[in-house]
Design brief:
Blueprint lengths: L1 H32 L5 H14 L1 H24 L4 H24 L10 H31 L1
Helix pairs in contact: 1-2, 1-3, 1-5, 3-4, 4-5
Length: about 150
């Protein structure tokens, strides 16, 4: 049962990060063009991107799987860092993923992440995903202890 809850927390964290990251990406892409865009057009483009960048979701999911497994090990050996392990792992997983994309393609395919602020927005989305994972997994551990 613990495995199912861990996977559920992983999926919810990846989904939360995906939505935040894609929304940020869309806004940075629109801002890069320097032309006024109506709120309705921003909303439409953002919805389109959220529904069509699913490969990025898969990439985030794999990055989180690796990052959160490493964070779980770190928590065992450095319990004082346990509070920060998953948020830091989520942020690091996204930063590393974008860095690996750049190394492979000589550009970042997530075009909104090509500027410093755009990159940081993606990393922050990863940190929030790690926080989501931490909260869900901690809540499931607490409910198991009560049972």
């Amino acid at each position: 049962m613990r495995f199912v809850r861990w996977i559920t927390a992983l999926l919810v964290a990846a989904l939360g990060t995906y939505v935040l990251a894609v929304v940020a990406n869309s806004q940075f892409v629109l801002a890069a063009h320097g032309v006024p865009v109506s709120f309705e057009d921003r909303l439409n483009m953002t919805a389109f991107d959220v529904s069509n960048m699913l490969l990025y979701f898969v990439i985030i999911l794999v990055a989180f799987l690796v990052g959160f497994l490493i964070a779980a090990l770190v928590k065992r050996f450095l319990p004082g860092l346990s509070r920060f392990a998953f948020p830091v792992a989520g942020a690091a997983a996204i930063a590393m993923t974008l860095g690996l994309m750049y190394a492979q393609f000589q550009t970042v395919p997530i075009s909104g992440a090509r500027s410093t602020l755009g990159f940081l927005s993606q990393v922050i989305a990863g940190g929030i995903g790690g926080l989501i994972f931490s909260r869900i997994s901690r809540a499931s551990e607490a409910s198991e202890e009560r049972a």
